[in-house]
Amino acid sequence: MTEPAISFKNVQKRYATTHALKGVSFDIKRGEYFGLLGPNGAGKSTLISITAGLAQASGGSVAVLGHDVVTDYRAARRALGVVPQELVYDPFFSVREMLRLQAGYQGCGKEVWPWIDELLERLELEDKGANSIRQLSGGMKRRVLIAQALVHKPEVVILDEPTAGVDVELRRTLWKFTRDLNAAGHTIVLTTHYLEEAEELCDRIGILNHGELQVLEDKAALLGRHPYRFLSLELSAQGETQALPDHVERLVEARRGDTLDLKLRQGEDFIGEVIEGVRGAGYRIVDVHTREPSLENIFVELTMDKDQNTDNEVTA
Ligand SMILES: Nc1ncnc2c1ncn2[C@@H]1O[C@H](COP(=O)(O)OP(=O)(O)OP(=O)(O)O)[C@@H](O)[C@H]1O
């Protein structure tokens, strides 16, 4: 099969007062680990809800492995597992019963029970299978939520902010789990507000902003395209100091105690000249750190520029 994992074609969504999606078109390739990012109110959840068949598009279409989510919804739903943000469950079932029941809703029988046990093991829930869900901690419920979306072994998995509010250890477990799923051939779509998470995990990034796809790019290319580098200088004043020269002052992003943070344009602002300028003003440089821009820096820059240049709409 050569169909993309998910194909969005001119997807539109209008609510009474909001144009939440303004014609979004792109493909998520089979087998990739895709990061869907965007500021609050950008339209990510709306796009996911339409893909999952929970909301109807006002225009355009979405297909999962070539199956239209409206006209061929059974096959589309079978191919897709969506891990939602909230767990809706019947508190009287045990974890294992609930997962088996969920598999039943998806049209699967006992053939997936070994897979359910494997999920429990890989999500470190193996000793919780017999517990009722209401006895579980928040972090364990989160893992059950993931298992629930995967009971039918969907080829395409969407994770909607899977690590919001979870501790570092569980975050690591979930990262490894999703990586392993991806390595086993599942396409992963991740939405997250933790940009370092997207930077760590994703092959390709899409950024939605005000209902439009603003960026669709390989992560490496996106990180490489950003023409900045950050320089932090730890200073100690020796006797009299003067104001920094203009060519240094205009690069200053922040002063934190004895540390000066600067943002240098690659190929235009040179570290040697900055250091000379700082020394010339009477400072001793105790330590130097340089850092390439992170996805977070790029995200802020791209989404801020858009706000300032073309759109003054305020998002939630
Ligand atoms: N049921 C609804 N009725 C009316 N407007 C809605 C509804 N759901 C979402 N919206 C609006 O549509 C826009 C997109 O919202 P959406 O929840 O898809 O954004 P998001 O990118 O998922 O944001 P967040 O990161 O905050 O979850 C927002 O302006 C939101 O207020």
Automatic annotation (TrEMBL):
Domain spans labelled ABC transporter: 6-235
GO terms, molecular function: ATP binding; ATP hydrolysis activity
Domain of life: Bacteria
Alphabetical list of InterPro entries matching this protein: AAA+_ATPase, ABC_transporter-like_ATP-bd, ABC_transporter-like_CS, ABC_transporter_ATP-binding, P-loop_NTPase
Keywords: ATP-binding, Nucleotide-binding, Transport
Protein known as: ABC transporter
Taxonomic lineage: Bacteria, Pseudomonadati, Pseudomonadota, Gammaproteobacteria, Salinisphaerales
